[in-house]
Amino acid sequence: MAAKPVREYFGKQLLAKYLGEASGGEFEFEGRGMLVKSGASDPASPSSWAALLAAHPWARDARLVAKPDQLIKRRGKAGLLAIDKSFDECRAWVDARMNATIDVEGVEGVLHTFLVEPFVPHAQADEYYVCVVSNREGEELLFCKDGGVDVGDVDAKAKRLQVPLGESAAPDALAAALLDGVPEARKPKLARFLATLLGVYRQLHFVYMEINPIGRVRSMETNAVLLMKGDSWPGIRGTGLTHKSPSGFWLGSDAPKRLILKVDLNDNRPPLADDSDGEGDDEEDEEGGEEEDEEDEDEDEPPPPEPKRQRRR
């Protein structure tokens, strides 16, 4: 299977749906937003500003954030965030940048897709960073109590916890390992949120997820990569996820290159959305499992190198 990135908009749509379900309604993930694409300024376009506002009437009177949704890293540092704006201000900001050629950290390309969503007021002290990334042993969670635009070198400063395949992470264990420096009153709920997030991450077959920042357990920017089989999204119920892997300049030399095959030795193979697209799939899986058992006994064969994490802000 290949790991393909999804837009921030679609990642948030998934989390908004499944986090509430998984937590029994304890956690609400802000899923409102609209994608603004080339042609929005054309009144005759079905995706014009007028059509977008008619489909999302909440945006008329809300304070908003606007930003490109093209897998661009460090948008805040690049001046690609409009924060706490009215709808008309966001519209003018987006129109001024739509189809513009920009250079971000030496990568040049054209802006053509933007995300407009509600602005969540918060203090900088309330900004946390969380990342979940899959590896050969399971999932690793990274947490920084100082998130946001100036999160800095996450690899150097983040608290880490490895959660093996087939095991869950109790909130108490998450709090003890990751939440040093977080106010005591916030730790229980934040730890329950992280435990729920990990469960949803696995349910939806994510292989990478970064939320920066989380403000008092309210999401803001989200980057995500999901495991795919062909053109299907495994294990995701419902409809509406139509986004294919983006292509273009922003993938360039800094493209996500993660290809992860997660082997569950407990034989808990997750269901796929479409297992009928090729003959002999089940037989191949069974044969592969036998081969993996044999390979496990060969201690002389070194494991493949870990994939390098790619972070986008």
Automatic annotation (TrEMBL):
InterPro entries registered for this protein in UniProt: Citrate_synth_N
Origin superkingdom: Eukaryota
Residue stretches of biased makeup (Acidic residues): 274-303
Region span, Disordered: 264-313
The ATP-citrate synthase ATP-grasp domain, residue ranges: 2-214
Protein known as: ATP-citrate synthase ATP-grasp domain-containing protein
